[in-house]
Amino acid sequence: MIKNILKRRWVCDSLAVVMLLLASCSHIDESEQLIYVKPASVGRSVLIEDFTGQRCINCPRATQTIAELQEAYGEEKVVAVAFHSGPFGSTVRGVRYPMTTDIGEAYFAHWGLSSQPVGIVSRHGPSDYSDWGTQVYTLLQQTARVKMDLAVAYDADTRKTDFTVTLMGTEGDLDGKLQLWLTEDSITAFQYLPDGSTDQQYTHNHIFRDAVNDLWGSDLSLAEGETTEETFSYTIPVDKDWKPEHMHVVAFVYTDQGVEQVVAEPLQP
Question: How is the chain split into domains, by residue range?
Fold first, then answer.
């Protein structure tokens, strides 16, 4: 009998402990039960908008500066887009060269540019190519406020491309724009050189072709820790002789403070 009494007492004591624990848990505020984990920081990549032209004798020097920066840091960290525009994007009689675009001219006018070569590094104001190295180095030391991934699916039969951009806020809330551009490499065309001569077989790279989502992109609002997915489509016009195997899509997020992050992917793997 003593054994049974002790057993019943042990059961009762155990139940009391369990009830006490449950009662204690019930008084914990729900918000206190969840611990916020800040997203991991993301390294920044840099966008160079290079305003250039075939009649610009010093523009090849700016192009060489971009090549050196990409060699030093990697093409995924230094993304370049060349806008043929401005006074050297046309003949002396004002006839545009084939790589000059309406959008390139619109950007040239918007930023109040008057000379070439000139560039804008991650939307931090126009600057001479001799300053790009310092600007790029400084920006690459910073973290980005958004993590970006870009998926590209190109259909050679229809010349249509579908783009999926996945974004996650990593630092504070962000209100800005998401922009997608198409560029093309390995275009052979003439170019004036610094010594005043012309190279009829000059290779032009990262040439701006078109904007996928309009002149200034699409509105984007992103909270810290929030993930969103944006999709776009673009069909290469049949009257364009662009070479998809040499093309890239450049996607970037920018605010009034500059470009927050940029990525680039080939149109065809």
Answer: 42-144+179-210+241-266
